[in-house]
């Protein structure tokens, strides 16, 4: 029952992340030339993490991201069974959040400024998947590396951990939105891509693999690097 509560918390957290983060992008747009919408989208994703960290963090750790869960798994913080449960819950939550956005925008006849439910894309990197992979690997490395450091028992950040993580997510979004839309989260990319495909826009689903592979590679690299750096040398 305890594990199920963790999965439900992850599902709710990821749903809220997609609903408010992608929803903000859909409302204001996230074109790099439009500074207001750009910053609002970055802040929306970061602030959701802050809010969820202080609400479901004590239940599930507030991963709400398969890449984060992978980093925690490699770092020895969870079992393989829990990892699988977390990822499934996160993807279900992302689909639910995207589905709710589709319902709201359809019923309210609101224009989606992104054209794809806030999904990620490669248009700004000349549709080059290699460039997209590099961006997502680097941004996810920074994000997951920070999370592992902040949440380590030696860090001593206490109640400020959620704020630090949220600000870091905002930072990587500020850099990455103009390149790939910033994923660093496979679930966050899968949900909007599927709903966009159902709505008739198959472009996001065609390149969604970049936003699955890139974040997972970045998270794995961050976990290995942190594990090495934080390990105590034996004399």
Explain how this protein is built.
With 235 residues, the protein is an all-alpha fold. It has ten helices and no strands. The chain has helices at residues 2-28, 35-53, 57-60, 66-74, 80-107, 129-150, 161-176, 186-198, 203-206, 210-230. Helix 6 (129-150) runs antiparallel to helix 7 (161-176). It starts with a helix and ends in a 5-residue tail after the last helix.
Topology:
Elements: H1 2-28, H2 35-53, H3 57-60, H4 66-74, H5 80-107, H6 129-150, H7 161-176, H8 186-198, H9 203-206, H10 210-230
* Residues in β-strands, percent: under 5%
How much is the average pLDDT? 93
**Helix vs. strand class:** mainly alpha
Poorly predicted ranges: none
Order of helices and strands: HHHHHHHHHH
**Radius of gyration of CA atoms, rounded to a whole number:** 17 Å
Number of helices in the DSSP assignment: 10
Shape from CA axes? globular
How far is the first residue's CA from the last residue's CA? 44 Å
Quantity of strands, as a count: 0
User: Biggest sheet, open or closed, and with what strands and sense?
Assistant: none
Q: In percent, how helical is the residue content?
A: 55-70%
Give me some keywords for this one.
globular, 10 helices, 235 residues, 69% helix, mainly alpha
Task: Sum this structure up briefly.
The chain is mainly α.
